[in-house]
Each structure stands twice: as structure tokens, then as C-alpha cells.
Design brief:
This is GntR family transcriptional regulator. It comes from Amycolatopsis taiwanensis. Keywords: DNA-binding, Transcription, Transcription regulation. It holds the Pfam family UTRA. By secondary structure, this protein is of the alpha+beta class. The chain folds into two domains: about 10-85, Arc Repressor Mutant, subunit A, CATH 1.10.10; about 90-240, Chorismate lyase-like (Chorismate lyase). The chain is built from seven helices and ten strands. The strands form three sheets. The chain has a six-stranded antiparallel sheet. The longest helix has 15 residues, at about 20-35. The protein is elongated and about 65 Å long.
């Protein structure tokens, strides 16, 4: 890591005082990330940082953990901690993952983790308008870009709308195949977004640590008034952000005070 100074200067020392040492170290590392290190650069190990700044490894771990939560650093299992790439903007319109990655100049790939015909939970029965006891297609896929795992998708599909779906090549864009084989192009969807911590299984799939932040999107999509897909997607919080345009409501003609 050649860009990182091997000897801390006067402004980069951790000292006893009213400011906690982990907070001091966090700001030192923040300055290094923002001024010296390009995206994808490794930072020294916890042991090296503890020795360099004469603090405990617990202090180092706390400082790094906060910067990971802020998205400035990212942990890669078995490799170390790196400066994070700039977060990608998650699109809040109906576009396939494959199309979105291609638009960004990245190479999308998909791993099918599970596919089958199963009895869905009641929430999905209601969302897809299924009959009581009617099975649906269940599909779990890992989505990658340039070989980096970005999202886990767990979805249900109405078998009456897309018969034989599981016989298709599910490693390719599902939206493209729905359009080609079924004439389905989603015309409407309802989406809910929330944040949560990665559980152990999802963290393993995404190459992150359990407890790391995720953005979760639950979407029910339909075609010509008929629901087809009930999908939940877990996106890495260190790789994505969401920006929305906020305008005054129609009743607030004078704007927001």
C-alpha cells in the first residue's frame, strides 16, 4: 500500500484526551481514504494499525467498523479491508439487473441457487392472487457484476402467467425471457424499501460479514393488471445508495416552509 504514509505525522497521532481514541483514529483513517487512497486500495491490518498508532486492536476494530458502516471501507472475506468503490445508484424504475449493469459498462452474471415449485407463504398468495393451496414457482439467484456479488434475489412467480418458466435459462436476464417467451413486459409495480443487517447465509453469499448493512427491496410486478412476480432483493449497502427527488405535495402550493 504505497500511498499510505508509513509514519504518522503530528496531525495523525492518537493522543489521550477528551476525544475517544477510536474517534480520533476514525478521522485519521477517513482523511487517508479521502485524500490518499483510490477506490479498491487495501488498508493495513488491524495489528499494523494498532502498532502504528499505539492503540488496542479493539480501538482499531471500532474505528474501521464505523467507516464500513459509512460506506468508506469494505471488508472482503479472507482478503482484508479495502477502500470502497463509489456507490452505485439504485434505479427506482422497472429495469432488469442485467440491463442496469450493461448500462453501467459492467459484465453481469447470475448464479441460480434454487428453483422449484413450492407452496408460497400467505403474503405471496395474496400478492399474486393465487388460489388457496396453489403452488408457485420459487427462484433464488445471486447477481454479480464483473465477478463481484452485489445482490441476492428471492422471488415467486405465478405459474398461470408464466407456465414452464423454470425450464428457461435462469442464468440470463429473466425480464428479457419473459418478454421473448411470454410477451410480458412489466407495466406496473409496487415497491417497498427498507434497511436491515445481513444474516449469516446472505452475508456468505455476498462475501460480506454477518451484520453488515443491506438495502432490501420488496416488489410485486404485473402485466396488464395481472400480478406476475413477488420479488425480494437484498443489495449490499456498501455498494449501493438510493436518491429520490422530493417535491412539494399538490396541497403545498407554496412549497415546504
Amino acid at each position: 500500500m504505497t500511498a499510505y504514509r508509513t509514519t504518522p505525522g503530528d496531525a495523525d497521532r492518537v493522543v489521550d484526551g477528551p476525544v475517544p481514541k477510536h474517534a480520533q483514529l476514525r478521522e485519521i483513517l477517513r482523511r487517508a481514504v479521502e485524500r490518499e487512497l483510490p477506490p479498491g486500495s487495501p488498508i493495513p491490518s488491524e495489528r499494523e494499525l494498532a502498532t502504528r498508532y499505539r492503540v488496542s486492536r479493539l480501538t482499531v476494530r471500532s474505528a474501521i467498523g464505523r467507516l464500513v458502516d459509512e460506506g468508506l471501507l469494505t471488508r472482503v472475506r479472507g482478503k482484508g479491508t479495502f477502500t470502497a468503490a463509489q456507490r452505485m445508484e439504485l434505479q427506482l424504475y422497472l429495469m432488469s439487473f442485467t440491463g442496469d449493469m450493461r448500462r453501467r459498462g459492467l459484465v453481469p452474471t447470475t448464479e441460480v441457487l434454487h428453483s422449484g415449485v413450492e407452496n408460497p407463504p400467505q403474503q405471496t398468495v395474496d400478492a399474486l392472487g393465487l388460489r388457496a393451496g396453489e403452488a408457485a414457482y420459487r427462484l433464488v439467484r445471486l447477481r454479480l457484476a464483473d465477478g463481484v456479488p452485489l445482490a441476492v434475489e428471492r422471488g415467486w412467480y405465478h405459474p398461470g402467467q408464466v407456465p414452464g418458466l423454470l425450464e428457461a435459462d435462469l442464468t440470463r436476464s429473466l425480464y428479457e425471457q419473459l418478454a421473448r417467451h411470454y410477451g410480458i413486459r412489466f407495466t406496473h409495480a409496487r415497491q417497498t424499501v427498507w434497511a436491515e443487517s445481513a444474516d449469516r447465509d446472505t452475508a456468505r453469499l455476498l462475501g460480506i460479514r454477518a451484520g453488515d448493512p443491506l438495502l432490501v427491496f420488496h416488489r410485486v410486478s404485473g402485466h396488464r393488471g395481472r400480478p406476475v412476480e413477488d420479488m425480494t432483493s437484498w443489495y449490499r449497502g456498501d455498494r449501493y445508495q438510493v436518491t429520490t427527488q422530493l417535491d412539494p405535495s399538490p396541497t403545498e402550493q407554496g412549497g415546504i416552509p
